[in-house]
Each structure stands twice: as structure tokens, then as C-alpha cells.
Design a protein that fits this description.
Elements lengths: L12 H27 L6 H5 L6 H9 L1 H24 L3 H18 L21 H13 L9 H19 L3 H5 L11 H7 L2 H19 L3 E2 L4 E2 L14 E4 L2 E4 L1 E4 L1 H4 L10 H8 L2 H13 L4 E5 L3 H11 L4 E6 L8 H8 L4 E4 L1 H9 L3 H13 L4 E5 L2 H9 L6 E5 L39 H9 L5 E4 L9 H10 L4 E4 L6 H13 L11
Parallel strand pairs: 5-6, 5-12, 6-7, 7-8, 8-9, 9-10, 10-11, 11-12
Antiparallel strand pairs: 1-2, 3-4
Length: 526
Amino acid sequence: MTRMKQKSLKLSNIQVTSLVVLRMVIGWLLLYEGIAKLLIPDWTSAVFLANSRWLLSGVFNWMASNPDVIRIVDLLNIWGLILVGLGLLLGVFTRFAIITGVVLLSLYYIASPPFLGTDFGLPTEGHYLFINKTFVVLVSLLLLAVFPSDKYFAMDRFIGWLVNRKKTHKLVKEPGPELKASKESRIVEKPGRREMLRYLLTIPILGTFICGTSRKYLWNSVNAVSGATITIDNLKLKDLKGQIPHGNIGDKMLSRIIMGGNLIGGWSHARDLIYVSSLFKAYNTEMKVFETIQMAEKAGINTINILYSQLPLINKYKRIFDSNLQTMTQVHPTKDDVYGNINRAIDQGADIIQIQGNCCDWRVRDGEIDVLHKAMEYIRKQGYLAGLGAHSIQALIECDRDGIEPDFFMKTLHHDSYWSAHPRENRIPFEVDGKNSPDHDKFHNNMFCLFPEETIGFMKTTKVPFIAFKVLAAGAIKPEDGFRFAFENGADFICVGMFDYQVVDDVNIAIDTLATLKGRKREWFA
């Protein structure tokens, strides 16, 4: 039998250099990902896992829904990336780092593959139909696994020499048959200075990484708005002044400040600034919405007012973060479909149901007040609190005359002492949410409580809890002014849309306002 000698693999200098560069680049990438997650406050993989829709999705979804499990998963993610990145960058335990990296990236790929139908139809950067950045890095690690990438410019060679030196020293000191029998027991010569430098070459690269990452983190932590000399005072939860007071509507306890859903839904009421709604939608990604709601809950806000179409998003948040947030859900019954919105809201887990403001306005305006009667009766029969919202006070006055008594009113309330408010003599009942006029002195999405004194007067005659919304006239009035006006003039609660960086500030203003109210003429009814 002819014996064929197998030639040992001999790599050229350019091949060795390419392997080393590839190993260090992947190490840099994974180390940065781990450090970034470590530095981001409250970072969690919960949303990523909750969105899984492929293999093992049930396991990933269960992890996301269990707070104790997700804390462990987050720690494994962060430190797994950091340690694998360090191993590849420095060449320490390189083979183990490669294998661990392959396992970690494989799980990432399975949890969120770039397949049609698994990305909710959203265009995602780095997804190229079966191939994404995770897959590219995964294949690169597999390439490193089949080549001796741990033999070049790696601390493993230096560590191996140290270990073998100790073994050799012991065998030479206590000679025996093992010394001759084992090739590994041969005396290993100390590496030369030049070879030693090659082993330690990656240490300066790690120093460069640490320096660059620190500078980038410090740069990103600067809280500024480009294009203006405005800095955002991003108040932290530690700056809260206390606990926001609560009140009761029926059997539900609500925080005195309720979170509005307009901003996270992209409805800006921005007058003639046509880009603002798109800006809101671009800013309020799903993760940002979750961060905002979580900040609100931690600040003591326990209720959010939303459209029934937003319930799936809020339910997803509640499932992921094990939240007890209450949803006050707006419905829009019509003459042709009185119960459809209501049933959908109930099916999706609404806690409180409220007739939408413009719905009440239009049903009264169009002589369809019987729709409101049927809707309110149906909501109560299903065992839910039934609220009645409006922008026009005339709508509520007509409902009251017709015998509709809700469990709570939800009415716009703000003063008209701001620049974009059009003159009183040009205000027309029911024009709110109507056609916008190009004339500054007429309605143009710029007023939401056309006759504030009539709203205040009507509320004095009722003993029904009153939630005031649009108290800041969609950003035209400062919170200190708008909150005080609403509470002093009869509101039992206020509903306010907030960005994440405004939450703590708004809660503190509400706490201060409620503690220093003067001249409130209406009794508290909640």
C-alpha cells in the first residue's frame, strides 16, 4: 500500500495577515456591541425576543415575558459579547471564543431571521433576504474556526509557552518515563523578543478601542438639540419630587396626570408645521414608545389614553414588561356601526372605554345623538366604565339635556391667551377638527377649547368626574400655566401627551401644582 504523505498547511504572510485582521475586526465589533449594551441604561433584549416569529419563537417569547429570566438573558448577552469580543481581539482562548461566538450569533439569527413575513413588513437596515449582518459575521467566525487563527498574533501562544514551561520544568526536575514518551514534554525555549512582541501586539489595539469607545460614549451623552441653542434637561427618576396623587372613577384608581396617546401615535396638531407629524413618527419608534411608557410608569403614571387601534402596541408593552398600565380606550361609534369599535376594544383588553371627542361632536352636530345613547348603554352592559369625550362644549350640553350621564367627562380645557388662538368673535361651535382656514384669524388646528368659560361653567353644574385634555393647547401653553388652569377650574384629572424626556418634568409640575392650588371652585369628584 502506498503511503501518501500529507503536507502540512503553510500559510503565506498575506493569508496570515488577513486572518488576523478578520479576527480582530470581528472581536472589535462584538466587544463594542457588548460595551454599548452595558452602558445603555435599562437596556433589555425583551423586545427583540418578543418579536421572534421563527424557530424557537415560543421559547424566546417566554423569555421576554418573564422578568427574572430576561434579566439573566440580558446579562448573558452583554457579558457574552464582551468576553467573546475580548477573546478574539486579544487572541485569548481564541478557539473557545470562536465557538461561543458562533453559538451566540446563531441564536440571534434564529430569533430574528431576514425572511419574508418575519419582519412585520418593515424595511430593516442590514437585511438582504436570507442574509443579514448577523449571518455575515457568523460565516466569518466559521471561517476562522477552520483555520489556525489562534496561532498568529495571539496571546494564546504566549499563554501556551508559560503553561508548557511549567510542565517541562516539573518533568526535568522529576525525570521519568513520561519525559521520553511525551512529545509535549520537550523543553520549550523561551520566545525571542521579536516573537514576544508579536504575541502582545493586540494589547495596544485594545487600548485604542477603550480610548475611542470612552470618547464616543462621552460625546453621545451630551444632551443637545442640533440647530438651536437649546439643551434638553433630561431629568432622571431620582429627581422626582414625590408620588403623583390619585383619584377614583368607579372602581378604577387613576393617577391625576394621565398619559395621552397622540404623540406616540404621530398626531401632532401642529397648526401649519406640516413636517411635525412625520417627525413624531420617526422619533417614536417602538422601542422609544416603550421607553417613554416605562418612564411614565416609574414616575407614577398608571393610565394611558389611546385609540383602540393602539391597543396591540400597548398590550405588547404590557406583556413584555409585565406591566399593570391601565388603558383608557377611545372608540368611535357611527350610525352604521355602533358597536364595532367597542367590541374590538373589549376583545383587545381595554380597561376603560371612552367615546372619542370628535365622535361625540359629530354625532351631536349631525343629529345622531341616539348613537351615543346606544353606545354608552352597551359599554355599561359589558361591565365597563363609559366616558364621554368632546372638543365642543355644545356637544356635552346637548348630551346632558338628552339624559346622557357618563361615568366621566373627557373635555378639552385651556385658556386662549396665546398667540395662535384666533379671535373669540370668529370662533364657531363644532369647528374643532374641522376645515383649516389659511386666515390666521380663523380656525387652523390651533384651538381645542373654543369657549373655556362655558366649559368651566358646565362642569360646575355636574357631579361627574372630569378629565381635561389638550390642556397645553398642543404645545402653545407652558405646563406650569396649563396644568394650573385646568386643575383650578375644575379638572379632576389631566391627560397630557409627553415625550420621554418630558415625563419626569411634567409629573413634578403636576405634583407642585396640586400641592399649591388656590381658588378651586369645583368640588373634587374623583
